[in-house]
Amino acid sequence: MEKNKRILIIVENLPVPFDRRVWLESTTLKAAGYDVSVICPQGKGYGESFEVLDGVSIYRYPPPPPTMNKLSYAWEFPYCWFSSLKLAFRVARREGFDAIHACNPPDTFFLIGLIFKLFRRSKFVFDQHDLCPELYLSRFGGRRAINFRLLRVLEWLTYRTANMVIATNLSYKKHACTVGRFPESKIHVVRSGPRISRFTRVEPDEELKRGKKYLVCYLGVMAPQDGLDYLIRSIRHVVDVVSRTDVHFVLIGSGDSFTDVKLLRDDLGLTDYVEMTGRVPDEDVRRYLSTADVCVCPDPKNQLNDVSTMNKVLEYMTFGKPMVSFDLKESHYSAQGGALYAVPNDEIEFGERIIQLLDDPELRENLGKQNRKRIEDFLCWEHTGKEIVKAYDALFGFDTASEEA
Fold first, then answer.
1. Is the peptide bond before 106 cis (omega within 30 degrees of 0)?
2. What is the pLDDT of residues 289-342, one digit of tens each?
3. Global confidence as pTM
4. What are phi and psi of 101, to 5 degrees?
5. Buried b (16+ CB within 10 A) or exposed e, 37-49
């Protein structure tokens, strides 16, 4: 059990422990005998600059302003880099570390890894949460733009610096092999499955339906690439074209596009049918998802979404809920037969699939059961989390097989 190795995890996207994947990785590695520290931004409810939770040391810095355009998107990189480097030196003095585990975006943390590789002989691990060049394209377009080309170079340099790559799915592993030309033997797939004990169903709360017969839920980030505009237009089809006024839609979450989505909702006259809660506590998430009749994944097909595993898909599945999704490669891999799939980016068909599920209670029940079973048998963290320990045991030369025996 004693590992005598220390890991520093750096993440920019969300505060920890709010970032579920990073927190699961941190606590799983800690339980396996590794000492773990985390550097991340502050956020709502996570304003302390330093605290220790479940044995994990968490260092936080003030977050950058929200990304609203290309300039602010570029500024986010150096800001987070300097903030993280400063805290990395602090962790090095206080606790030390044998490996830096960098979660993207952005793909600039390889420079921090390189500094400590050269002067402290620390290993550098690249945990690829997103394909940053493709993320840029999904938000701004412009394959020939200098920003896109720069992002591809940064990604390539990150691969060149890494001792090991952690991919969230097989599509990302293929990307690391083909685009990044990284050795397949040093790539480990660690899927972002939820821990079943955290996502438990509660008694449905009919008041959440606001007097309607059905409840349809969206849970997740609201950024330009997440397709909330597609969802709002599909809801207009359900309400105005098909005249289904017996459905209440709840959109849970926040992000750069929250205000734009709210304005679109109001402009289309859907205020009485679409509730936007912002971020809510886990207890409220459980209430909403336990009550929902259908859940939705409106992520449009693009270079990023088609090969990315959506956390909301796995969370819906954990609650045993049927869902509607555009037919994306990795979303289809996750849910398989537990969803109805619309032609990518066809918001009218997306709305029709919602209606199809609402009108067929037997189909909803069957799809929900399939989703829960797939989570329990294959995709929950209780299964997928073992891979992060195996990856680090391989990195440091520990014999995982003998420990399991």
1. yes
2. 999 999 999 999 999 999 999 999 999 999 999 999 999 999 999 999 999 999
3. 0.90
4. -110, 105
5. bbbbbebeebeee
